[in-house]
C-alpha cells in the first residue's frame, strides 16, 4: 500500500527535450535558474517567469554548476571540476592534483558551510564499486570515502552535522556523521534503501527543516524524507525520470526539477524542467571558496 503523504503536482517551467537534464542551480541575485544537459554538453540559463531560456555549448560533459564566492562558476565536468564563467571559454582545474583513474567519472557535488567542494566518482559501466568521495579545499583534494558504485547527490544538513549522500546503485540514501571543522566523515546510517524496487535515487536538495528532497527515477516523483528517513511529502512529476532538484524562486519555496527523455521517449514532456511550489523553504546553497 502506498504511503499517505502530502503531495503536490509539478508543472512545466521550461519545455524542452534534454537527453539528460541535470544539476539545477538557482541564482537569487538575478532570479534565474541554471541547469545542464550532460549528454549534449549544454549549459542553460532560464527565466521561470517568462519560460524563456538561453543555452551555451560546453567543451565537456557537466553534471552541474556550483556558485563561487568570487562570482565565478565551478563546473562539475565528468573528468574533473574546473572554474570558469557562464560566458567564458577558459576553464581552470579546481585542483591540480585532482587526478582520477580513467575508468571513473565525476558526478554531482556540493559545498559545505566552510566553502569546501565535495564530489564523488563512479564507474560508468556500473559494474564495480571503484568510485570515491572527495573534498577539495584551497585547490587541494583529499579522499574521504571509497567503494562507491554510482555516486550522485551530496548535501549538508542545516546544523552542519550530517552529510547526505545518494548512491544511485545499488540504490541508497546515506546520512554520514560530518565534522565541519575537520572536514571529516564519520559513521553512516542508511536512511532509505531502494535496492530491488526498480527506483533509482538521483540528485537531492535540503530544506531549512533539515529534510532531504530526492529525485526518484522511474517513480515520477520528488520525495521528501525527514532526518529519520520517514517519507512525509512528495511532488508528482509528469515524467518518468526526474534527475535532480533545487530550491529557488523569490521565497525559495519552489522546487525546480530536471528530467531526462532517454528511457521515456513516448512522453512529450520528458526532458523538460518542471517546477512546484511546496510548503517548505530551501536551504541556500553554499558557494565554493573560503568564507
Give a quick summary of the entry.
With 291 residues, the protein is an all-beta fold. The protein has strands at 6-9, 11-14, 21-27, 32-37, 42-47, 52-57, 62-67, 73-77, 80-84, 92-93, 105-111, 117-122, 131-137, 140-148, 150-156, 162-169, 172-179, 184-193, 200-206, 212-217, 221-225, 231-236, 242-248, 254-259, 273-277.
Structure overview:
With about 290 residues, the protein is mainly β. It is built from no helices and 25 strands. The strands form six sheets. It has a five-stranded mixed β-sheet with strand order 1-22-21-20-19, with no helix packed on it. It has one domain (about 5-275): Neuraminidase (6 Propeller), CATH 2.120.10.30. The protein has strands at about 5-10, 10-15, 20-25, 30-35, 40-45, 50-55, 60-65, 75, 80-85, 90-95, 105-110, 115-120, 130-135, 140-150, 150-155, 160-170, 170-180, 185-195, 200-205, 210-215, 220-225, 230-235, 240-250, 255-260, 275. A hairpin with a 5-residue loop joins strand 7 (about 60-65) and strand 8. The chain is about 0% helix and about 55% strand. It starts with 5 loop residues before the first strand and ends in a 14-residue tail after the last strand.
Amino acid at each position: 500500500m502506498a504511503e499517505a503523504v502530502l503531495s503536490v503536482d509539478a508543472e512545466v517551467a521550461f519545455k524542452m527535450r534534454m537527453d539528460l537534464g541535470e544539476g539545477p542551480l538557482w541564482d537569487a541575485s538575478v532570479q534565474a535558474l541554471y541547469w545542464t544537459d550532460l549528454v549534449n554538453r549544454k549549459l542553460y540559463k532560464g527565466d521561470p517567469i517568462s519560460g524563456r531560456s538561453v543555452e551555451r555549448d560546453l567543451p565537456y560533459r557537466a553534471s552541474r554548476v556550483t556558485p563561487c564566492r568570487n562570482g565565478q562558476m565551478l563546473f562539475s565536468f565528468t573528468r574533473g571540476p574546473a572554474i570558469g564563467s557562464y560566458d567564458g571559454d577558459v576553464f581552470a582545474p579546481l585542483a591540480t592534483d585532482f587526478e582520477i583513474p580513467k575508468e571513473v567519472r565525476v558526478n554531482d557535488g556540493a559545498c559545505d558551510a566552510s566553502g569546501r567542494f565535495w564530489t564523488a566518482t563512479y564507474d560508468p559501466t556500473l559494474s564495480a564499486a571503484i568510485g570515491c568521495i572527495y573534498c577539495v579545499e584551497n585547490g587541494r583534494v583529499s579522499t574521504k570515502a571509497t567503494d562507491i558504485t554510482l555516486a550522485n547527490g551530496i548535501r549538508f544538513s542545516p546544523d552542519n552535522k550530517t552529510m547526505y549522500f545518494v548512491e544511485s546503485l545499488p540504490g541508497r540514501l546515506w546520512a554520514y556523521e560530518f565534522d565541519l571543522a575537520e572536514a571529516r566523515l564519520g559513521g553512516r546510517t542508511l536512511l532509505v534503501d531502494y535496492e530491488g524496487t526498480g527506483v533509482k535515487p538521483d540528485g537531492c536538495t535540503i530544506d531549512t527543516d533539515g529534510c532531504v528532497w530526492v529525485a526518484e527515477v522511474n517513480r515520477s516523483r520528488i520525495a521528501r524524507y525527514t532526518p529519520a528517513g520517514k517519507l512525509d511529502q512528495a511532488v508528482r512529476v509528469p515524467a518518468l525520470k526526474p534527475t535532480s532538484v533545487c530550491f529557488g524562486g523569490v521565497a525559495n519555496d519552489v522546487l525546480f526539477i530536471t528530467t531526462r527523455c532517454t528511457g521515456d521517449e513516448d512522453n512529450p514532456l520528458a526532458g523538460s524542467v518542471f517546477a512546484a511550489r511546496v510548503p517548505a523553504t530551501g536551504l541556500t546553497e553554499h558557494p565554493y571558496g573560503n568564507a
